[in-house]
Amino acid sequence: MRLLIGGITLVILISLILLIPLATAVDYDNTSITLKKTPQFCYLTEDVTLGTISFLALHEWEKQLVLNNPINWKMDIKQITSMNWNECNVIIQFVEGMENPLDLGKTDLNENEALITIPLNHENKKLSSGDLLNSLTHELGHSMGLGHYNSGVLNDSDSIMSPQFEPFKNIILQITLQDVLKMNEKYEEGFQ
Ligand SMILES: [Zn+2]
Fold this sequence. Notes:
- By secondary structure, the chain is of the alpha/beta class.
- It has helices at 2-25, 48-68, 129-144, 177-186, and strands at 27-30, 40-44, 76-79, 90-95, 106-109, 114-119, 121-122, 125-126, 146-150.
- The strands form 3 sheets. A 5-stranded mixed sheet has the order 3-2-4-6-5, covered by helices on one side. The chain has a two-stranded antiparallel sheet with strand order 1-9. The protein has a two-stranded antiparallel sheet with strand order 7-8.
- Helix 2 (48-68) crosses helix 3 (129-144) and helix 2 packs across helix 4 (177-186).
- It is globular and about 45 Å long.
- Bound molecules: zinc ion (ZN).
């Protein structure tokens, strides 16, 4: 028994030593938006592929959130043909290129609405569906209230909210436990 307690103490000590540098290095902030019950996401495009990418990105968020904690994470998504803020909390639009050509996406938001803009091209090259999916999954995180996950590591796969990713590498970024836990911290009882 004493040996067991000693072992547990040792494990706790080791965990603490390992956790201290992690806890100080990682910074995961929030954005000011808080979505209400059954938020309505809308994609402003008639392109079937872009509509499917929008659906898949949002569905992945809902799936990962429900798998981890089956509370109310219900979200709706539909197509719109004009910028209609009466029916939508979050609007996704696709553009040929960004004002800042280095941006792979951006989200403008206030407390209850967000506009996501995703470029179809980067440095004059057409982005793949996978890269569009990566950008949109990240921007959807912002639109739900997540800020950036800053660990100081470039291309950190620990979070979909890591601020940088390199396109044209055939990489699909994943929503991680870090992201799901951060959502649960913000929405303790899901969308209310
Ligand atoms: Zn971002």
